[in-house]
Amino acid sequence: MGEPNPEKPFKLHGIELISFSIHPQPDRDCPKGEFEFNINQEQKTNDEKKIIIVFTSVAIRTSGKEPILASISVACGFEFPFFGKIFKKNPAGIFLIPQDLSTSINRISIATARGILYSQLRGSYLQGSTIPILDIE
Fold first, then answer.
1. DSSP one-letter code for 27
2. How far apart are CA 117 and CA 113, in angstroms?
3. How many Å separate Cα 127 from the centre of its chain?
C-alpha cells in the first residue's frame, strides 16, 4: 500500500443511505421537469478517526407547491490521512476546512446523492426528476 500521497489529501471512506421517502402520487399528474430541489449539506469532523462526513439532504416538490413529494438523506465519509496537518481549530474549537477541500467533498457528496436518488426513484412517478448539475464554489 505504501505511504499516503499528500497530492491526494483524501479518499472515500464510506457511503450510507440514511433515509428515503416517497409520497403517493398526487391526484393530478406531476408536470415533467417542473420540480424544485431543496438541497442542504452539513459537514461533521472526527479528528480521532481522521474523517469528515458530509450529510446531504434533498427534498423534491412540484415547483412552488407543497407537499414534499420525496426526500433523501445520504452520508459520505472522507478519510484524511494528514488530518492534523490540513485542518486547524479556530478559537471556538471548530475545525476549519479549507475552501477547496470543502468544495470538492461537497461536489462529490451531491453527485453521490444524485445517483442514489436516481436509483431510488426508478419506476416511480418521479423517475424523470434528477438533481440538476450545480455550480458549487
1. S
2. 6
3. 19
The CA dihedral of 24, 27, 29, 33, to the nearest 10 degrees, is: -50
DSSP 80: -
- Per-residue pLDDT tens for 50-91? 999 999 999 998 877 778 999 999 999 999 999 989 999 999
Length of the chain: 137
Distance, in Å, from the CA atom of 58 to the CA atom of 17, rounded to the nearest integer, reads: 12
Buried/exposed code over 73-86 (b: 16+ C-beta within 10 A; e: otherwise): bbbbbbbbbebeeb
95-124: string of b/e by CB count within 10 Å (b at 16+)? bebeeebbeebbbbbbebbbebbeebbeee
